[in-house]
From TrEMBL:
Lineage of the species this protein comes from: Eukaryota, Metazoa, Chordata, Craniata, Vertebrata
Keywords for the protein's UniProt record, in alphabetical order: Cell membrane, Glycoprotein, Membrane, Phosphoprotein, Transmembrane, Transmembrane helix, Transport
Gene3D superfamilies tied to this protein: STAS domain (3.30.750.24)
Keyword check for Transport: yes
First-listed, main subcellular location of the protein, grouped into a coarse class: membrane
Protein's membrane topology: Multi-pass membrane protein
CDD domains, sorted: STAS_SulP_like_sulfate_transporter
Entry-linked InterPro entries: S04_transporter_CS, SLC26A/SulP_dom, SLC26A/SulP_fam, STAS_dom, STAS_dom_sf
Family: Belongs to the SLC26A/SulP transporter (TC 2.A.53) family.
GO cellular component: apical plasma membrane
Name used for this protein in its record: Sulfate transporter
UniProt key word Transmembrane helix: yes
TM segment ranges: 54-76, 96-119, 173-192, 212-230, 335-355, 376-398, 410-428, 472-501
């Protein structure tokens, strides 16, 4: 039977473009209102806020996240190479802006270890190029409410007041200038991606690439914190191979380890890991997770302060954290040019993690998000805070899971978390002066448990898909051993190469008929399949294009045990030899040749099939080379009196064949060459024979 195609009316593209432009640039009060409400989703959902139903869950989750945010913000400042005050600024502004612009009710946007690491690597590189010393272990003495130091130590002079902070621009000022410039450019990239609807870029970051990238970065983070754990003073490694260089420096200086820091680190890690494991085991019985990090920080600060650990044992401490807000400052344009390339992977990673977590929460709690608006939200979470001495942000998985488990209902919980951070910023920050850096390092390392546990899942991952496992290993290794940015690029390129290789050498098979049915399957994979007499059925499980043309032909010739080109050449030689013998008057004896001249190479091969059916159900598209390849086998097999029939072609493949002239000029023979099922093609071949 023949299925008639529908006739599609071709739309005038010029008119469509003009109509879209008119619609885009027209401005009416209603359209302006919708634009504002779409850009600030809070205007849509906040008036419908059900206070009695939502408020307690939002307050509880907001308080818990705020309590977690404070110690994490202080700790992650080590990763970013900045002072803790800037991490607190980042956490505060990100929560406020996402409350106004975000569409996910449950995602927690703020400071994130992976993003902090990427920022810190750029900051360290630029500081080194500017001639600053990367050693951050020198802590000036605190006296009479101010933190004072000389210009030779590359530190900043602060006036610790509740309303303002004056600073001389030294190492710290330059570091935050780099971070804000990087953050601003990353935010601009994200907004531009939203304007031009480039969210599809995230599709090229597969789960294996993201997991491998996060795990490799976690190893880098872990390595960077070891010097704080054991209290040694080594230069902060920079550039490619940071992980290896850092470990070499650690072992070279292991004799300088600080016993006080080692003991403190051991105690903190045991307490944190034990609390986390107990929390995971009994989380169904706990209404909210225990604020273990905050408890550890408070106890450790009190012990360090009253035990005078800094002076008595030379234990490195956080130092003074000023209160209040610094006056806004426009990010430096000259630094933006220097970090423009570094901002691109930062923007992509930040966006991908935010959108993937938002989609995960939306699917779990049955609501929808707008990915493009999420890109705008995270973009402005970077652009606006960059004027207020903040650095790049992203959604964080651990805090998002805590947020959902503590009763979060809407984005209002983010405002509550911001108020907790604001309380610390205005009043409590100086209390953390005596907090040891090794305690912060412990918090960072324990927070990496989830990413490091991916190694335990490696056998299961390998069992599910070997190629994805290889992608994970390559991405993880490149991220850890080279650098995070190059590791991400290597992961993307390698995963694409894997896809290309898999399409270059896909599965091919000869099909047999399932007994007493009209269905056909792989004769190599299944038992009790019957072959069809005089018919070969070939399946190719990939698009047929220029890169796999040769593999298609080789597989077809190998499985059918017939190369039509060689067979045609053999027949021509046979015919030529036969004519020569007939001219000489020799009597033909065997296949027309004399006994002495008979050779196996010239005897035509006995072909056991007269029709070749190509199952095109797994061929999604053809390019010009693919069409020419099918035309080539049609011509080659026709010379051997073997008909080639195509089955199960999709409309795209059929259109490509028509445009390529496969069915002839007027496509009259299409009904005898194209079939909508393998069984129809087989029956036609039998009738033809």
């Amino acid at each position: 039977f023949f299925m008639e195609r529908k006739t599609h009316v071709k739309a005038n593209r010029k008119e469509i473009v003009l109509a879209k432009l008119r619609k885009s640039f027209s401005c009416t009060p209603r359209k302006l209102k919708n634009f504002v409400m779409d850009f600030f989703p809070v205007l849509r959902w906040l008036p419908k806020y059900q206070c009695k139903e939502y408020i307690w869950g939002d307050i509880m989750s907001g308080l818990v996240i705020g309590i977690i945010l404070v110690p994490q913000a202080i700790a992650y400042s080590l990763l970013a190479g900045l002072k803790p005050i800037y991490s607190l600024y980042t956490s505060f502004f990100a929560n406020i802006i996402y409350f106004l612009m975000g569409t996910s009710r449950h995602v927690s946007v703020g400071i994130f270890s992976l993003i902090s690491l990427m920022v810190g690597q750029v900051v360290d590189r630029e500081l080194l190029l500017a001639g600053f010393d990367l050693n951050d272990d020198v802590i000036p003495a605190l006296g009479h409410g101010s933190l004072q130091s000389d210009s030779q130590s590359n530190t900043t002079v602060f006036n610790l007041t509740t309303d303002r902070m004056n600073a001389e621009c030294g190492k710290e000022c330059y570091a935050i200038s780099i971070a804000t410039a990087l953050t601003f450019v990353a935010g601009v990239y994200q907004v531009l991606m939203g304007v031009f609807r480039l969210g599809f870029v995230s599709m090229y970051l597969s789960e294996s690439v993201l997991d491998g990238f996060a795990t490799g970065a976690s190893l880098t983070i872990l390595t960077a914190q070891v010097k704080y754990l054991i209290g040694i003073k080594i230069p902060r490694s920079q550039g490619h191979g940071m992980l290896v260089i850092t470990w070499i420096n650690i072992f070279r200086n292991i004799s300088q380890a600080n016993i006080c820091d080692i003991i403190t680190s051991a105690i903190c890690i045991v307490v944190l890991v034990t609390a986390k494991e107990l929390g995971d085991r009994y989380k169904h019985k706990l209404k909210f997770p225990l604020p273990t990090e905050l408890i550890v920080i408070v106890v450790a600060t009190l012990v360090s302060h009253y035990g005078n650990l800094n002076e008595a044992f030379s234990s490195s401490v956080s130092g003074a954290i000023p209160t209040g807000f610094i006056a806004p400052k426009v990010p430096r344009f000259d630094l933006m040019i220097r970090v423009a390339v570094d901002a691109l992977p930062l923007a992509v990673v930040s966006f991908v993690f935010t959108v993937s977590l938002s989609e995960m929460c939306a699917k779990k709690y049955a609501y929808t998000i707008r990915a493009n608006q999420e890109m705008f939200a995270v973009g402005f979470c970077n652009i606006i805070p960059s004027f207020f001495h903040s650095f790049a942000t992203s959604a964080a998985l651990a805090k998002t899971l805590v947020k959902t488990s503590t009763g979060c209902q809407t984005q209002v919980s983010g405002v509550i978390s911001a108020m907790v951070v604001l309380l610390v910023l205005l009043f409590l920050a100086p209390l953390f002066y005596s907090l040891q850096k090794c305690v912060l390092a412990c918090i960072i390392i324990v927070s990496l448990r989830g990413a490091l546990r991916k190694f335990r899942d490696l056998p299961a991952r390998y069992h599910v898909n070997k190629v994805d496992t290889v992608v994970w290993v390559v991405t993880m290794s490149a991220s850890a051993l080279i650098s995070t940015e190059i590791g991400l690029l290597v992961g993307i390129v390698f995963s694409m190469l894997c896809i290309i290789v898999r399409t270059q050498k896909p599965r091919t098979a000869l099909l047999g008929q399932i007994q007493d049915t009209n269905f056909y399957e792989d004769d190599f994979e299944y038992e009790n399949l019957s072959s069809v007499p005089k018919v070969k059925i070939f399946r190719f499980e990939a698009p047929l294009y220029y890169a796999n043309r040769n593999y298609f032909l080789k597989s077809l010739y190998r499985l059918t045990d017939l190369d039509p080109n060689l067979e045609a050449a053999r027949r021509k030689k046979y015919e030529k030899k036969e004519k020569q013998h007939l001219k000489k008057g020799n009597q033909p004896t065997v296949n027309g040749l004399g006994r002495r001249d008979t050779t196996l190479q010239l005897v035509p091969k006995q072909i056991d099939f007269q029709a070749l059916v190509v199952d095109c159900s797994s061929i999604p598209f053809l390019d010009t080379t693919g069409v020419n390849t099918l035309k080539e086998i049609l011509k080659d097999y026709k010379e051997l009196n073997i008909s080639v029939l195509l089955a199960c072609c999709n409309p795209s493949v059929i259109d490509s064949l028509k445009r390529g002239g496969y069915f002839g000029k007027d496509s009259r023979s299409m009904q005898e060459m194209l079939f909508y099922s393998i069984h129809n093609a087989v029956w036609f071949a039998k009738d033809q024979n």
